[in-house]
Amino acid sequence: xxxxxxxxxxxxxxxxxxxxxxxxxxxxxxxxxxxxxxxxxxxxxxxxxxxxxxxxxxxxxxxxxxxxxxxxxxxxxxxxxxxxxxxxxxxxxxxxxxxxxxxxxxxxxxxxxxxxxxxxxxxxxxxxxxxxxxxxxxxxxxxxxxxxxxxxxxxxxxxxxxxxxxxxxxxxxxxxxxxxxxxxxxxxxxxxxxxxxxxxx
Length: 201
Fold this sequence. Notes:
The chain is built from three helices and eight strands; from the N terminus they run H-E-E-E-E-E-H-H-E-E-E. Helix content is 11%, strand content 29%. It has helices at 13-19, 109-116, 129-135, and strands at 24-29, 32-45, 72-78, 82-89, 96-107, 152-155, 166-169, 186-189. The chain has a single domain (5-189), classed as Roll (3-methyladenine DNA Glycosylase, Chain A). The radius of gyration is 15 Å and the shape is globular. Strands 1, 2, 3, 4, 5, 6, 7 and 8 form an eight-stranded antiparallel beta sheet that branches. By secondary structure, it is mostly beta strands. Strand 3 and strand 4 (82-89) form a beta hairpin.
């Protein structure tokens, strides 16, 4: 079942980042459907989070997407090479987002293999946010897409994890965020091979 629009309006981005684990992220591009189970996420807590693009109420061409009502995608270019896909959440004017860091390939593996030029059995195919986006064919053209639409969406297939299967650690690559870099707002599924490194407790 496709997650309803109301799901994304939840103002607790930490809850959402955990709750999205086990959900299935789909894309349809030129009639080709690919999907994977979300196995790693990071929460970004808007204006008060030093790791967020919207920290301190920063408004730029890039961040305007974050301030919109939840239920759309935020895709930005990292290091000039990787497209990173984020779920925009919360209400209008509150720039919360969840970065999807890894997926476990499930549907359209052959298409993902072509996009990533490697077998789907290899963890690197969709481990880490840039790889996960590339495997699903997500590029900058996916910015500001409706997550209840026909191009990119998330479904709930009833996959649930016990609390001891979900690991919470500090986020990756946000050293500039000073004390906020230490917040345990990265969540991943224990022992899932598609989780990016470091993936040990």
